Amino acid sequence: MGLSQVAVLASAQTELRPAWRDAQHIDLISSVVTNVFKGTGLTLDDVDFVIDSGSDVLDGRSISNCGFLGALGAHHKEEARVEEDGLWGALYGVNKIRSGASQIGLIVAYSKPSESDIDLYWASMVEPFYQRPVGFGQKAALGIQAQRYLAAHGIKDDALAAIVAKRWADAAANSKASIGEVPDSAAVLAGAEAAWPLTELMISRPLDGAVAVLIGSGDVARRTGRPPVFITGMGTSMETHALAERTENKLDSVANAARMALGKAGWDSAAAADVIETSGSSVIGELLTFEGLGLAAEGKGADVASSDKINRSGGALPADPIMATGLVRLAEAAKQLSAPVKAGAAAPSKAIVHGTGGVAMQTNCVFTLEV
Amino acid sequence: MFYAPDTAPIDLPTFKSTISLPYTLTPGRAAGVFLAEMPNRRIVGARFADGTVIAPAQDFSPRDGEEPTELVQAPETGELTGFTRVNGVVLGLVRLDGCRNSFVHRILADLDQVKVGQRVAVQWAAGDEGTSILAIEGFVPAADAAVGEVKPLVGAAEPLGVINYAMALHYDHAYGPYYGRMFDELKENGVVMGVRGSNADEALLPPREIDDITHKRTGTWKACADTGTIRACSLINVEVYGQTRQVPYAYAEIVLDGASTKMIHVIEIDDLETAKQQIKPGARVRAVWTTGERRGAVSDIERFEVIEG
């Protein structure tokens, strides 16, 4: 086991809601930081460093973590910000512990997209001379990605709608996401057009919320309450910014990140995992992720999408707290490994966790977990 | 969260805020020439050492970072390689003839008229779009358009130096239970309320649920005085972007009586020499409240003034 000495000790999440109108960022953050220690026997005093993920643009202030340090429990501690999904924050934290410099790290990610104009957030990420003036952004990029994929593989809208409906039902049953009415396939198809051929529900839904994950060295992990969930492999890779220059109908960066993670873990294939939690920015993004992970052949992602192993928490489609989504996946996967029966499996022992960021999933990160 | 958030309505009022930042963007040589050529209705591409061409021109290859060897004039025809529709506007990836890459632009056709692989031709904007890429209004289906050729760029325009640009981002910030009460008390009662620290009688301002230093739950609410002591200050006599009042004025960190934390506010100045004598750490100050209607904002206190004697 490559990285056997770092484990997920515990996690805490707020409810993930369309809008936390009655709470500030600091309220959400301090809630998860307070709650993550419960049952571990550890306290904030035991934490060697804090790493947080969020977006200054979404938050509406620069270096926004500086205003959140108290809520993060980072007063007079080593603190660092990762302006990327919290799964990269965890990657940083694991390496700090692996280096021997620290033993216990607190990884926090949060999001309040309800406070800003999400289309402007994405527009701020694209190129200002050629792309922004014509109205290019996340929706357009996901729409083009989907149009090409569907055209290449002859997949029908109703197959996609069934996948989306399953994700919402699973999120209602198994996640911290606030789910009102669970849409059926017909409702998914009948939804407003987000970016043809994608309807609103075929694109991940931005939600407000926070998540904290406590990680620690193997020695600490063996002394805390539950069987340790070890992080045994990690990988990350990024596509070129120019959407049209990326390989058509593939997420090479998912494949690269998976190759790194699996190599470290010593697994032959991601199919060895009993639990798979992914962060697709759209339903097509999810299928491309399965294919990149090697769970399905090119164009065959839909064939595995309904597997009981995959996105038992509902994944990112019904609940995408941007910048926290991947860390939520880590928390959900670790929970399923440490409470296998509750998660509906006999004895899962391995998990794959995927996080993403950027326009049309430009950057991707993969973890392997083992108990 | 220790309080019961589920009991609160979801449609609470928010604090509306806009961040609007001015920029002077530097397009560099390739994009600078491309944009400078827009009024001339020429599409500028870039050729690399291997002979391949991309359009619009870039100073680097998006594939491998290589620098182009020359700028060229790209043709006005090409083919569609992907498309979508957002907010009723069809956007497509267009690969111009002789180019290796596609780029995003508007497709001026209904969705049912477009398909991947079809021929398209540029449509120039009727109006004056200046040096924007929107001088190209978009691309129209052109089934019979002849295949265009990449040509040398003869008499290239000088690249644009900098481009004035502005971006405004709009926010609806939630107050949360603690700021919410603080601003309500300011508005309704003209009182500055904080909460006691986790192990102290002095109040934290602004109030919060968790003590920043101990990460323990904070104490009970406490009204602070509207008098206090300067702990740090700066006399501002230079105009900078984003100022909300005329210089000179003082910017002071003030500990209100009854509080333990500093709040930032302003003190007006008549003349700098007197201000240097009066406004300094340790000086006592009092709040000057607005004479108008209180709005539930820090600006309900217009400014602070030094208590003389």
Describe the structure.
- The complex is a heterodimer of chains A (371) and B (309).
- Chain A has 371 residues and is an alpha/beta fold.
- Chain A contains 13 helices and eleven strands.
- In chain A, the strands form two sheets. In chain A, strands 3-2-4-7-1-8-11-10-9 form a nine-stranded mixed sheet, sandwiched between helices.
- In chain A, α1 packs parallel to α3.
- Chain B is mainly beta and 309 residues long.
- Chain B has two domains: 27-161, no CATH class; 175-306, no CATH class.
- Chain B contains three helices and 19 strands.
- In chain B, strands 7-6-5-8-9 form a five-stranded antiparallel sheet, with no helix packed on it. In chain B, strands 17-16-15-18-19 form a five-stranded antiparallel sheet, covered by helices on one side.
- The model of chain B has no long low-confidence stretch (mean pLDDT 93).
- The chains are: A alpha/beta (371), B mainly beta (309).
- The interface between A and B is large, with 60 and 63 residues.
First-last Cα distance of chain B:
47 Å
Q: What gross morphology of chain B would you assign?
A: elongated
The arrangement of helices and strands of chain B along the chain is EHEEEEEEEEEEHEEEEEEHEE
How many DSSP E strands of chain B? 19
Oligomer: heterodimer
Structural class of chain A: alpha/beta
Total tally of structural domains of chain B: 2
Question: Summary?
Answer:
The complex is a heterodimer of chains A (371) and B (309). Chain A contains 13 helices and 11 strands. By secondary structure, chain A is α/β, with parallel strands linked by helices.
Give keywords:
heterodimer; A: 371 residues; Peroxisomal Thiolase, Chain A, domain 1; nine-stranded mixed beta sheet; two-stranded antiparallel sheet; 13 helices; B: mainly beta; 2 domains; five-stranded antiparallel beta sheet; 19 strands; 10% helix; ChsH2_C (chain B); OB-fold domain-containing protein (chain B)
